[in-house]
Amino acid sequence: MRQLATILSNRLIATATMEMKIEIAPQAVAPGTFFHVKTSELLRRPLSVANVEDNVVTFLYKVIGSGTADLAARRTGDVLDVLGPLGNGFPLEQTGKRVVLVGGGIGVPPLYYTRRLLAARGIETVAILGFDTKTSIFYEDAFRELGETIITTVDGTYGEMGFVTGPLARVDADVLFSCGPEPMLKAVAASHIEERYISIENRMGCGIGACFACVCEAPGGYVKVCSDGPVFRAEEVTL
To answer: Does 216 count as an annotated binding residue?
Structure first.
């Protein structure tokens, strides 16, 4: 669904990391899905859903190029051209199971909305969030309000020093939901957790499965991240 959404706020919350809230038409938005957002560049930018409250959708994005720099310059009241929600998200039917959510950097945002919905269903969760350094951390308090939360930093300036795989190795859980950079996903996909879902971040063209710009290798062929994913069972893709 393409629509023009009003920007309610757009602010810096960590190093080079922005939080944008937009008002959209009332509709169901599943956790792990994304919106394809028009910027000053030719191609839209896929932004994962960090939270939804009524008809307000929150995005978190890192400013790393001209497209995201254009988004960072937008102001309250500006109109944003968005397409979505798109893709397939995390499955919430986890009754009786314990879920560990593992996020790295800008892969953390979709796990917050996912965790909120799991908590509303009474499903126990633990979150492991990895960042480069202390000034890169965001949403720590929001995650802690929902349960046990472990923070790691690569340089050891906050929380546990190292990568998310360290605390993950000692966590007892039945299901894993994860989003982050590919090296991290490769590591967590090989973890001891029995049921593993990973959300893949890829540059996209159309966002609806027509252009084949975001294909990912899979056993026996390829899958489209935008329309088949972005969430897959770990065994469904080859990283």
So the answer is: no
